[in-house]
TrEMBL record:
Protein name: Phenylacetate-CoA oxygenase subunit PaaC
Pfam families: PaaA_PaaC (PF05138)
Organism: Fictibacillus norfolkensis
PANTHER family named among the record's database cross-references: 1,2-PHENYLACETYL-COA EPOXIDASE, SUBUNIT C (PTHR30458:SF0), PHENYLACETIC ACID DEGRADATION PROTEIN PAA (PTHR30458)
Record's signal peptide: none
Family matches, as InterPro entries: Aromatic_CoA_ox/epox, Ferritin-like, Ferritin-like_SF, PaaA_PaaC, PaaC
Coiled-coil portions: none
NCBIfam families cross-referenced by the UniProt entry: PA_CoA_Oxy3 (TIGR02158)
Amino acid sequence: MTQETLKPQEKKALIELLYQLADDDFLLAFRGSEWLGLAPHIEEDVAFSSISQDMMGHANLYYNLLENIGEGEADRIAHLRSPNQFRNAIILEEVNGPGTYLKEPDYDWAFTVVRNYFYAVHKHIRLDSLRHSSYEPLAEAARKIMTEQYYHLMHWEIWFKQLMTSTDEAILRMTAAIQKVWKDFGGVLTLGPYYEDIVKANLIDDENVMKKRWNNKIEAVLKEVGASYPGEPRMERGNGRNGVHTEDLKQATATLSEVYATNPATGW
């Protein structure tokens, strides 16, 4: 399937999926960027900055695919939509912790590790499916992103396992972070209200198939580090795929769009 051969219903499903993919990476990359200069040590500062930059590039790839099928300029799509037009999962927009980057940041590293690891596992599963997407430009993008995602996943898995088998305090903080992330991670695992159309168009695997793969992987890792499996991931604050979001997204989009809104000539 190409841009020229897309049927109206397939195009609508593709647009919905691309916004999910782009917005997920866009928001989590932004939250990662807020750790610049604040990571536990200098090597992690460099590594995390690189991962966040990669993820922002992945979001850009998806926004450009949206531009190519008539959704408008990629920069405008990324920076000038209202919060209720975003399709990212709510857990990915959540602030890193109390304070702000410029004023008394008291960020939670355990929360950051858990959120990024759980997301990296799902993103890897999602990309593996997208490599075989019926929409060839998306399949090509997924294959390109997968070369970087392998290292992102390895990075966060090392952090997760090390902290979960470290000191009592580290285990306590990580366990609390798992419980916190679990409350809303179901939002990452869903394809939203156009789920049936997305799957019917063979754009990606069934969400239940991918969710099972994610559950199996996470359950095995939790067992390896001596932690219990919390059960079905939830969406306690709503489904971001439906445009339901928190004040954290408004703060994030206001910051992300500040320069572009002032000078639209500024590109990525």
